[in-house]
Amino acid sequence: MLAIDSTRKISFNRSISNGDLVIVYERHDNMKAVTVSEGSVLQNRFGVFKHSDWIGKSFGSKVFSNKGGFVYLLAPTPELWTLVLSHRTQILYIADISFVVMYLEIVTGCVVLESGTGSGSLTTSLARAVAPTGHIYTFDFHEQRAGSARDDFERTGLSSFVSVGVRDIQGEGFPQEFAGLADAVFLDLPQPWLAIPSAAKMLKHDGILCSFSPCIEQVQRSCETVQSNFSDIRTFEVLLRTYEVREEKMESSQVNGNGSNGSLPCKRRQCSGGAGVLTYPTSSVMARPCGEARGHTGYLTFARLK
To answer: How far apart are CA 199 and CA 172, in angstroms?
Structure first.
């Protein structure tokens, strides 16, 4: 899991210890986060898995149940955490998150302000991007939601890089103590135009603002507001299409004659004319679009402080 040492370096402990958070992987669409506890067990369709058997193994290990079934124990990267976290609100997924981190130019040492925190999906990736010398200050108006997010950052080892505050940013704006200190500001609010004037005061010269909105009407009103203090205003919609790659067996047939294709036949069938038909086993790797590919999630509007 993510660990912090005395020099505030972020790293993965490659061996699993008692108390670590692991992602138990059954298949790409079936994973869960489990805290390792010696003496505890995990039960699923593959059997019973003892946590004590996991301790000391490396992340990525394949472990077996009492019935011979198996799962993989993966490190809780921000990408995997996004897929298993509790959805307290609608979350951002990997396609939008990666675009946000790149376009906001977030690197080690950056100071980023965020509102609202929600389920903490984006915050987790932002924290990894700014570590080990940067910091994320994230705010949510809902006290219980903010507390749950704070607990999650403790579980994933990111609490040294993330501070969670309870505040109505739409009504009160960001705290004045951050004025002129933020490299980037991210807004995920129902009325982001109310928070944009405050965000402008928080940004450093040439800092970047991003607003995530599910509806184009929100985008239009936000763009009208940012024109007074921002330039290079752009809006994007990121659409991701996922493909499933699998190996499938196929059969090819050849009428038996004097020639041979050099392969051993799998079946022999008799034709009406007496000739034999040899069927040879073959396989092919097929790539097909997943049936549950996500479509529209929201619009990302970026603007740079003049």
So the answer is: 11
The model carries a pTM of: 0.81
**Where are the chain's structural domains?**
2-76, 80-239+295-305
Please provide the DSSP assignment of 229-291 as one string: TEEEEEEE------EEEEEEEEEEEEE-SS---SS--SEEEE-TTS-EEEEEEEEEEEEEE-T
Instruction: Specify the amino acid at residue 298.
Output: G
Could you list the residues known to form a binding site, using ranges. Answer: 119-122, 140, 168, 188
Q: In Å, what is the CA distance from 129 to each residue of 100, 119, 139, 303, 304?
A: 11, 18, 18, 20, 20
Q: Which residue has the tokens 């500001």?
A: 185
β-pair type (203-213, 182-187): parallel
Per-position DSSP letters for 4-15, written without gaps between them:
E-TT--EEE-SB
What would the two tokens of residue 280 be? 């040879």
**Who has greater pLDDT, 188 or 286?**
188
- Alpha carbon distance 216, 227 (integer Å): 17
Whether residue 173 has a cis bond before it, omega within 30° of 0: no
Binding residues for S-adenosyl-L-methionine: 119-122, 140, 168, 188
Q: Provide the token pair at 75.
A: 């490190």
Q: Give the orientation angle of helix 121-130 with respect to helix 143-155, to 10 degrees.
A: 50
Topology of domain 2-76 in CATH is Vcp-like ATPase; Chain A, domain 2 (3.10.330)
At 78-126, the pLDDT tens digits run 999 999 998 998 899 999 999 999 999 999 999 999 999 999 999 999 9
Q: Which CATH class is domain 80-239+295-305?
A: alpha beta
CA gap 176, 174 in Å, rounded: 6
First vs last C-alpha separation in the chain:
40
